[in-house]
Amino acid sequence: MGATKTEFFTDKQNSISTLIKALAHPARVAIVEYLVKVDTCICGDIVDELPLSQPTVSQHLKELKTAGLIKGNVDGNAICYCVDETAIARLRDYFSKMSVKLEKSKCC
Amino acid sequence: MGATKTEFFTDKQNSISTLIKALAHPARVAIVEYLVKVDTCICGDIVDELPLSQPTVSQHLKELKTAGLIKGNVDGNAICYCVDETAIARLRDYFSKMSVKLEKSKCC
DNA sequence: TATCTTTATCGTAATATTGCAATATACTTA
DNA sequence: TAAGTATATTGCAATATTACGATAAAGATA
Question: What angle do CA B55, A108, B31 make, to 5 degrees?
């Protein structure tokens, strides 16, 4: 008990919920929004932008990267992060399609 | 330690991450997708559609309802659930806007 | 009223997440 | 090479989530 029963859901459901989960925290929303705002690969100053310690920010960055939402390129002793367009596009498409279906709905 | 430091983020960031969090579980993705698919208010058979116990499903439904993603109307001793279009539209808009910004980006 | 059906709540165990201090790693520069 | 800078990892405490058996609550029906 306690662990999510992923084996009982479809690959699509598990995959989209994993992607969604990566943004299910205000710090990770803030990181992605910041990367979108500055419109360039960011090396080094993400920690300064957030009210969290360096290890905590590093952990959130790792989660975003594992989920495929951001990309990180090594540049000297710094790392340049930027948002992965395709992941955001996938979320956009998922909710767009759902929204279209709901608009046609006769329910409620 | 351990609790999310919501007080350090903006209301918008907290609010969108709360909405996103509601779908950060395959069971809740499955529930919402099922409600969209059947295109009608569903009374009673959501539990039969999911590989989880009745209390667990009830708990997930409660989370979706609290987050505003679904609506529940009492109908006799059953409850009719359906997706709240505006919540899905909000998620769609959020990722659409972000996607547009990224398409214009010169980064990476 | 007694029973059935449907959904919610309580209590609890297992697991996951969040956050940070301490420390390690890796690259840069003096 | 030594010191500095940037990021990652480890280890751990606090908290949250997930899941379900048992039970309660509320309306339907015999």
Answer: 30
- pLDDT tens for each residue of B86-100: 999 999 999 999 999
pTM of the model: 0.94
Whole-number Å distance between alpha carbons of A41 and A80: 5
CA distances from B4 to A24, B9, B21, B29, B62 (A): 11, 10, 13, 23, 21
Query: Do residue B108 and residue A41 have CB atoms under 8 angstroms apart?
Result: yes
Report, as an integer, the average pLDDT of A84-101: 97
pLDDT of residue A43: 66
Angstrom distance (rounded) from CA A30 to CA B17:
10
Which of A54, A55, A52 shows the shortest CA–CA distance to A25? Answer: A52
Q: In chain B, which residues from 73 to 102 place their CB closer than 7 Å to nucleic acid strand C? A: 77-79
How distant is the Cα of B62 from the closest Cα of chain A, in angstroms? Answer: 17
Q: Inform me whether the pLDDT recorded for A5 exceeds 70.
A: yes
Interface touch A20/B16, C-beta < 8 Å: no
Structure tokens at A4: 């999510």
